[in-house]
Amino acid sequence: MPAASATSPTSVSAEKAGRAPRSRTDGSETRKSARPLLDLTPDANGALSQEQVRALIRVVAENYRANYKQQRDYTYIEREVEKKLDGKRQVKSTEVRTYEVMAIYGEQFERLIERDDKPLSETDAAKEEARIQREVEKRKNESEEERAKRQAEEEKQREKNREFVSDVAEAYNFRLLGSELLNGRDAWVIAGEPRAEFEPQGKAARFLSKFHGRMWIDKSDLQLVKLDVEATDTVSMGWVLARVHKGTRLVYEQIRVNDEVWLPGHLNFKLNARIALLKGYNEEAERTYRDYRKFRTGARVVGVGEVREQN
Length: 311
Prior knowledge:
The chain has one domain (50-294). Helix content is 24%, strand content 43%. The chain has helices at 14-17, 50-71, 122-141, 144-171; strands at residues 22-24, 29-31, 74-85, 91-104, 107-115, 118-119, 172-182, 185-194, 211-218, 224-231, 235-237, 242-244, 249-257, 261-275, 279-294, 299-303, 306-309. The strands form 3 sheets. Strands 3, 4, 5, 6, 7, 8, 9, 10, 11, 12, 13, 14 and 15 form a 13-stranded antiparallel sheet that branches. Strands 1-2 form a two-stranded antiparallel sheet. A two-stranded antiparallel sheet has the order 16-17. The longest helix is centred in the middle third of the chain and has 28 residues, at 144-171. It is globular and about 65 Å long.
């Protein structure tokens, strides 16, 4: 991990610091009500107070949630590499899968298009196409009651995600380390260590005390550019007694798309876990995201890797 430079933080203009994230409702872009302006003016020693950094993280969290919502407006390609490791962390096997991710009636679906960087056979491609078309017909023919129930469940899950992202801003003591250039853009580098007094809103946030890490925040857009977190202790979760061990690590990066939104660019994680004291998981996984395209209202799925505008 590259070390942060000693560059002191600079104040953010009122326009950028008070910027509200864009949201999408009926397909048009709107802005939420203005939030209080951020004061990121450093003290005499070039440092920011804990509350200044926490206020910045809250705005970044809001922007992240807005990005998540807009991601459903895009189709893109996701390539996934999974490596199974032995006890000495040597690679035992590697599996590569590539998906086209698309929206079907407001819900994202993955269509498998390659295995090990080779196109599917005609038989497997036809099976995958048939699976997607079944989902299209299912969404197309669902009743108003079924649609309302599905959307309520989706909103319930989104609310849990919103709670978790909000908890991140409150779960840590943050420290500004300096600045770095990432992809030619200036970013703050901020370290986070768990707060002993933190009380989570959601169940998932109970595990935050077992992780620490760093985040990189774009100074211009106030967006998360990179996140690097690591488990500092064993994390137990769920009724199946799953255990994620110390040293498990995740690195996540976002990229700027269409000058309007920041979306996933790269994800890498190293997992060391055990389920119910029986099966161990020792693996590395990498996901890359590319070829983002706006999925316009009125588009329909017509074939593998193809989205066309309806007449």
